Amino acid sequence: MRRRNFLLGAGVAGVSSAAMWNTETLARDGDSKEFKLCLNMSTIRGHELDAAQEIEVAGKAGYDGIEPWFRKINSYVEGGGSLKDLKKRLDDHGLSVESAIGFAKWIVNDPDERAAGLEEAKRDMETIAALGGTRIAAPPAGVKKGEVVDLDDAADRYRTLLELGASVGVTPQIEMWGGHPTIGTIEKALYIAIRAGHPDACFLGDVYHTYKGGSSFDSILLMGPHALRAYHMNDYPADPPRETIKDSDRVFPGDGIAPIPEILRKFKSVGAYPALSLELFNKDYWAMPVDECAKVGLEKMKAVVAASAS
Question: How far is CA 139 from CA 162, 164, 176, 234, 306, in A?
Fold first, then answer.
């Protein structure tokens, strides 16, 4: 990373963000003093439901919102379903769409792949906008093994993605994958977000990925409500160790060793109340009845939120 460019980028982003930090922005980001509790559909992916059935599960369990995967939405539409039907189901259950998971290759070095990735991202954004959503995840998808993506280039590409999102009314959130060679730490994600120099730049964090990437949860104290709009909730056990732990080892919040109540208190201390999205890939949970899995997950999240108040 070029230190001087980083500092210049931080200054530009700070001035730009300050200029945009007005009543309209506050209303868009939300000024709630409560955490919305959401179901990321990876948590029940193993139950092999369609997008409509997943919404029904989340609504029946009592979640505030959802974080769907574009693969499931696209499959539902290709099978004859409609976005209008999904939107009605969401409205009937009072569910918001707080984020969405896709894997558009917006960050890769190959210009043709990147152009195709931006087209995919635009389709994803238009899809989620039709469901009432205003945010999607922007992970470092598509970077091949051994491929090196310069962080300044990544920042330029993130800005392009943000500009595309602004044209649709959907904000891509820079997402880190713990240990990923391009965005494997919070530090790299924030560098890219700041260096992008765009007022909509923000960060999609994750308990497990913070641990896996060797970052500190104290980094939350450097952010605020504009940067922290959604956050993936999960926990991790003491074993296997960080070096070998995998996505499938994630457990319900409060069932591992992560300092989740303290993490939530850090959010509160900077005035941030991001939507908390339960994102798990645990096959043991997929073996549970789907309604039970969703209900237990919500109860576990409520428990850690309550613990953060003490």
Answer: 13, 16, 6, 18, 30
